[in-house]
Design a protein that fits this description.
globular, single chain, D-Maltodextrin-Binding Protein, domain 2, disordered N terminus, five-stranded mixed β-sheet, 313 residues, alpha/beta
């Protein structure tokens, strides 16, 4: 026999189920705040074996970890071409690039008079990388690791040398040293250089790059074609003469980043751009010296610089 009490039970049960569903739904929204929080980025930064690349790679790692709680690995790779291939295969997503290196090496362009302008080379490389490789260049750090003519400070002060043009009257009595690659470089090597500056050296000798500094110290050569941010310039108290006629092509340093990473995580660009314009040649050289000369650890030097700049706590 179907009684009133049974009917009330069958009416109440669906109502309770509906109330429970609404309560649990509401609790889920309160606990999760609606949509789930996005996962922090997972990134691999590529670096070559030399100090500058490792330092800038480490700075990227620290910034992304500190600001975005990202998971960041730093991988060692050998050379610009290997780095580029790793970017294309998505094995790495960020690395330190040099405009001149990618201009001639990856893009296969020839350095001519029109391509010695820093802004023009940067704009060209940035545009080509975006169109060809779906990678972009962030703003330059401020240092230009191009070729530089270095002389001992005592020699520079004795002859009042500040620019390469100042060498013109002294060059016939000087021995210039360089590595073999620069000596034979068609557009930016020795022959083009002395023609461009209208000067002649007594002699131009070539040797392993590392021996140039030893030869400067011993007085076997009077000047050397070095790299502008080399730590040994600071360690040996050398003077790099201003390229006042703009002969050497630009090698501006900047982060190269995969576009798909920036599309998924726009905050990565904002975070890495904190270093834009923060490093000139002297500062980068000094940081390299901390590692190469004073043998301090990369993470320590990188973190110390970021703290000094107020970019991390």
């Amino acid at each position: 026999m179907f009684c009133v009490r049974d009917m009330r039970r069958y009416l109440i049960m669906p109502v309770l189920a509906l109330v429970s569903l609404l309560l649990f739904s509401g609790c889920g929204e309160m606990a999760g705040g609606g949509a789930a929080e996005p996962e922090p980025p997972k990134v691999t930064v590529g670096s070559t074996f030399h100090a500058e690349s490792w330092l800038m790679g480490r700075m990227a790692k620290i910034l992304l970890e500190e600001h975005l709680d990202a998971e960041v690995e730093q991988a060692e790779l050998q050379g610009a071409m290997v780095m580029h291939e790793a970017m294309e295969s998505d094995d790495i997503q960020i690395y330190l690039g040099y405009t001149g290196t990618q201009f001639t090496g990856i893009l296969g362009k020839t350095v001519t008079e029109e391509w010695r302008d820093r802004d023009r080379v940067y704009d060209y490389v940035k545009e080509e990388f975006e169109q060809r490789y779906d990678q972009t260049w962030l703003s330059p750090f401020g240092f230009d690791n191009t070729y530089a003519l270095a002389v001992p400070r005592e020699y520079a002060e004795e002859h009042a040398l500040e620019t390469i043009s100042d060498l013109r009257e002294h060059a016939p009595d000087m021995i210039l040293g360089s590595d073999p690659n620069w000596r034979e470089y068609p557009e930016v090597g020795y022959d083009a250089f002395v023609d461009y500056y209208d000067m002649d050296f007594q002699e131009a000798v070539t040797m392993d790059y590392g021996l140039l500094y030893r030869s400067l110290r011993s007085g076997d050569i009077d000047a050397a074609v070095a790299y502008a941010t080399d730590a040994r310039i600071v360690a040996m108290d050398l003077v790099t003469l201003e390229d006042d006629l703009g002969f050497f092509p630009p090698y501006d340093g900047a982060y190269v980043v995969r576009k798909d990473l920036l599309e998924e995580y726009p905050e990565v660009r904002e975070t890495l751009e904190l270093l834009a314009g923060k490093l000139d040649d002297a500062q980068m050289s000094a940081l390299n010296a901390e590692v190469d000369v004073h043998e301090r650890d990369y993470p320590e030097v990188a973190r110390e610089f970021l703290e000094e700049q107020g970019l991390i706590d």
